[in-house]
Amino acid sequence: xxxxxxxxxxxxxxxxxxxxxLAQALEKGLVAPSIRAVPTGxxxxxxxxxxxxxxxxxxxxxxRTLRRMDSFSKLALLGARLALEDAGLxxxxxxxxxLVIATGYGATTTTTYALMxxxxxxxxxxxxxxxxxxxxxxxxxxxxxxxxxATGPNxxxxxxxxxxPSALLTARQWLLDGRVERVLFGAVDELSDLMAYLWMRQRxxxxxxxxxxxxxxxxxxxxxxxxxxxxxxxxxxVKPSYCTLQDVSTGRHSGPLACGTDLLVLGADGRQAxxxxxxxxxxxxxxxxxTPHYGSMPSGPAFDLAAAALMLRRGKAYxxxxxxxxxxxxxxxxxxxxxxxxEISCLTFAADRGFGRIxxxxx
Amino acid sequence: MDTKTKLKKALADELNLPELNAPGFDxxxxxxxxxxxxxxxDAVELVxxxxxxxxxxxxxxxxxxxAFSSINTLSAYxxxxxxx
Lengths: 363, 84
Description:
The structure holds two protein chains of two kinds.
Chain A: E1 5-13, E2 16-17, H1 19-28, E3 34-40, E4 43-49, H2 55-60, H3 63-66, H4 71-87, E5 97-102, H5 108-122, H6 129-135, H7 139-148, E6 154-157, H8 163-176, E7 182-189, H9 193-203, E8 226-233, E9 243-252, E10 263-266, H10 272-282, E11 286-288, H11 300-314, E12 331-332, E13 343-350, E14 354-361
Parallel strand pairs in A: 5-6, 5-7, 10-11, 10-13, 11-12
Antiparallel strand pairs in A: 1-2, 1-8, 1-9, 3-4, 7-8, 9-14, 13-14
Helix pairs in contact in A: 4-7, 5-6
Chain B: H1 3-14, H2 40-54, H3 61-67, H4 71-83
């Protein structure tokens, strides 16, 4: 079987921009949420959120190139460019590079507001072609491929909270089959006005934090947004890699998952509905959880993956925020605990007993 | 508001081209290619923007090609169509 390594990571979100910003947040502690104004029918109201900053994209890409892109494509492009930069690759001439994007919600600003508003306001005959183009499911992936000169296949996969493991299955298979030599794999979700409004409607009272995802009987989720991209390679690369991608699996569980002696990075994100499932899966295991650094979003498992890759490279654990609130029996690794066995599983649970598990190993 | 000002405002807003309203912008600069860099998707949007803001459809593409040369030619074309 071909060996797959992670050669570059591009992340940004509430913690800042770049893989170093994520590493610093993981080392230094909890990221404070910012306040987002959410428009409602009764005026604006406030929501605590872990928001992403797109300004760094304007340094990397010409304004003219970004002119027609919606915010979702921009989020994806920034993640992709950061991952390429981290891997030491140029954003051009990337032959034999595939692209797979995972997203739980997709382009909610464009699809739901801009295009629909254009149809209802201006009529069918005057619907904006640009909004229509941006509303297509694979537009962000197409934009990235054009901008970085990727000539391999590109694809966007949505399976709500299992989007990341589901898309990574495809990326891994392309590499194992030899369809491409490298895959730029990433996950992205935006906290648009619509999504922020829905978040507030579903949860009612405003929760300003902090997130305490291991307090599994409480609702402590704060919404997040951003992107996490990875340059996966099946080549014999010269540049040292972060770690190896060993296995990806998704399915439905009927009891606790067998994760062996792996360290578990739990995707628990403060949503009480999934708390008991995470507590049962982690019972007696060695665990960490980093969602308070980037917030609750379907793309969260990609950030878990980035944190796990960073831990494997440094050989030590990061502290789990609000670990003192853990309400189940598990060993929550303290900061800088050495990783005894170099295998980490990132675990995600979703509705209908769905699960996703991504296993990483040392180089 | 005169036709040219209205046109520039509509294009700046709908095609995200703030430079159209910047001081010193050359209204004779080509809209496509080396000028403002518009392309075929923008051309379709341009037809829609004109229909929305000026109330007529450009059906003759040969006529449209000449009209779409620059802000000045497009503005003159709109005035001509509105006076017919």
